[in-house]
Amino acid sequence: MSITSSLGVGSGMDINGIVTQLVTAEGQPQFNAITRQETAAKAQVSGLGSLKSALSTFQTALQKLNDINLFKTTKAVSGNESIVKVTSGSGSTAGSHVMQVTQLAKAQNSISATEFTGATEVVGSGTMTFSVGAKTPFSLTIDSTNNTLAGIRDAINGAAGNNGVTASIINVDNSTNTGTISKLVLTAKDTGLANGFSVAVAGDAGLSRLDSSTPANFSGVAALDAKILIDGQAATRSSNVITDVLQGVTLNLQSGAALGTDVKVDIALDNAAIKETISGFVTAYNALNSTTASLGKFAGAAGGSNGALLGDSTLRSIRSDLRQNTSAPVSSASNSFNTLKTIGIDIDKDGVMTLDSAKLDKALATNLSSVSDVFSSTDGVATRLKAKVTQYLQTGGPLDTRQTSLNKQLKVLSDKRNTVQLHLDNVQKSLMKQYIAMDTAVGRLQSTGAFLTNQLAQFSNN
Q1: 392: which of 150, 208, 249, 330 is 20 to 30 A away, CA to CA?
Q2: Confidence bin at 10 (pLDDT 50/70/90)
Q3: Is the pLDDT of residue 456 over 80?
Q4: How far apart are the C-alpha atoms of 359 and 355, rounded to whole Å?
Q5: Do 288 and 413 fall within a single domain?
Q6: Same domain, 27 and 162
Q7: Coil, helix or strand at residue 148
């Protein structure tokens, strides 16, 4: 007889229900305790994750401020962008210059003089050797497999050693304007005299029509270098994008340049970019302060819930370090500007940081170097905060150690839950056995009682 089918047969009791209630009564307090511990541990793990995320965002803002080149950031302005566009980068210095574009760089463009009937016309056979500036020449063999105009174009473009020439075909009117013919166009990949090319042919008369040593074989545009005057001084470059005339400044000569026209180029400190970075620091600080305040919140009698890291010693240390390192004077800065407050950044009693834009503008205009020192010198605010934040976020640091410990605790609690469940499963099996045995015994007693009652009734009737 199966256990299920014998439940309550003899006694009429709900044995399954009774056993379930007994097992629940024994296990529920243990499960409740484990759940409370798991909930608390998970909340702390989540809180530490939020804290690390806020610290990481703050670290990014600090890295930008800690870069001493920030306070050398410049912006370049062209007096005429139709002639030259300018951008400044690392290493540029403030100054004003006058320049002229006297010649634009051009890429060599050679168009075959021969009028071919079409791309499939056979040109000739032999060897073509291309020399591009001082680069290693490359050669290609022209034979029956590639001796058409299209075949030669493709052979040039596909040559493994091709280091500076592209080939194409144009279909244009013939010289008498009575029909359409095809011509081969060879173009240097880069501008400037150093990238000009020549074509030498060793072959039959047909292919020799593409030998550039015969001037009549090609027409087009010769390679030219860019030429400029900067503050009256001449500079020649192979490209129209010039990066090495003004240190840290890119001059982009425009195709529509009015040659010989004076253009003023101003390189000035980019205070707007500096202010934007400082403003980003203030925003990141306030976000971190808000996160730490929320995680350490004590709800008290006001209701609500406590912060996930209420009473956590690491959180207290972070809040203390933030306040101390942002408020303390910077020993490596000048006396006139040696705190955040002196350059327009203040912190109220709740730890909220504010930026006085006008005061910062004045500090930047008065002594940019000192403002830089406040943040990025050896004892600067960004320098010391970055060191602290790195310490907290590093592998094996206090936050990483706390998370590792909590995850181990959650694993122990999970194992404990499984152990309790295993014990309860055994208890349930044991109780079921006992109750089934009791139920069977009661059933037998009831059966015996019924038999005796029946016998007595028959005896009485006799």
Answers
A1: 330
A2: low
A3: no
A4: 8
A5: yes
A6: no
A7: strand
What does DSSP assign to residue 139?
E
Same domain, 127 and 219: yes
Average pLDDT for the chain: 90
**Residues making up the chain, counted from first to last:** 462
Which DSSP string corresponds to 290-340? HHHHHHT---GGG-S---TTTT-HHHHHHHHHHHHHHHS--TTS-SSS-ST
Q: Cα separation of 370 and 194, whole Å?
A: 47
Answer yes or no: do 13 and 81 share one domain.
Answer: no
Residue 391 and residue 286 share a domain? yes
375 and 291 in a common domain: yes
What residues does 96 pair with on adjacent strands? Answer: 266
* Helix/strand number for the chain, H first, E second: 10, 17
In a domain, 460, yes or no: no
Phi, psi for 150 (deg, rounded to 5): -65, -40
Q: State the pLDDT at residue 9.
A: 54
The answer to the question of residue 457 being in a domain is no
Q: Domain of 337?
A: 1-73+271-298+306-443
Q: What is the percent of the chain with per-residue pLDDT over 90, rounded to a whole number?
A: 60
Say yes or no: 169 and 184 in one domain.
Answer: yes
Residue 272 burial (C-beta neighbours within 10 Å; 0-12, 13-18, 19+): exposed
SS3 assignment for 389-423: HHHHHCCCCHHHHHHHHHHHHHHHHHHHHHHHHHH
**Domains in the chain: how many in total?**
3
Find out whether 231 and 59 touch, Cβ atoms under 8 Å.
no
DSSP run (H or E) holding 455: helix 398-461
Specify whether the CB–CB gap between 103 and 225 falls below 8 A: yes
Domain membership flag for residue 55: yes
In DSSP notation, 207-244 reads HHTT-TTSGGGEEEE--B-EEEEETTEEEEESSSEE-S
CA separation (Å) from 401 to 196, 293, 411? 64, 22, 15
**Which two structure tokens, joined as six digits, stand for 316?**
């207290």
Residue 330 has a pLDDT of 92
Could you give the count of Cα atoms lying within 13 Å of 461 in the half-sphere of its Cβ? 6
* CA dihedral (304, 309, 313, 318) positive or negative: negative
Q: Do 248 and 286 belong to one domain?
A: no
Bridge partners for 211 per DSSP: none
Residues 42, 46, 52, 58, Cα dihedral to 10°: -160
3-state secondary structure of 248: coil
Domain-located, residue 294: yes
Nearest to 252 by CA among 73, 72, 80, 74: 80
